[in-house]
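Chapter summary example.
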Amino acid sequence: MGVKITGVKELERRLRLLPERVARRVVRRSVVKATDIFRKAIHANASAAKDTGEFQASANKRIRTYRGETIVGVAGFKVFDLTGRGNKTYPSNIDYLLEFGHRIVVGGTTERLSGGSKKSTHAQKSKLKGRTGKGRVVGKVEPLGIVRKAYDARKSIALTTLTHGIAKGIEKEAAKLGGTG
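The structure predicted for these 181 residues follows.
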């Protein structure tokens, strides 16, 4: 999932006229605003799903800049805030399990090597060491799709916010620098 601005030649051209550091600041501010739209939608979707109070509270965003060029906004759940809170223990991939669903297995694990592979390698066997393989599936947790629904519903709004934010940021910074933009 992702939104990438391509084909907005005029914005790209005007952005390149600004000094590199200023251009990065303009884009980063716009990415923060656009990512916040997704974060709020994820928070709202999580509140609509049942039994996700702590999960909803962990909805967050993170902005990263890579090599001074690529700015990425990620909205989702801050899973590490959930692990080990109070008396409850959550697996580290709780966000994935709730988003995409999972099987409920009792009495061990289900055998993962049976069926598909003709031979089990030593590495595969060592991963299963101590597991019985005699577990039985007693149920399934249906996928909630919280993040996917938020993304699908808000993608166009976030893209508009991003492009308008960049355009306004370019105008503002150009005026500060004394140019016409």
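To summarize the output: The chain has a mean pLDDT of 75.
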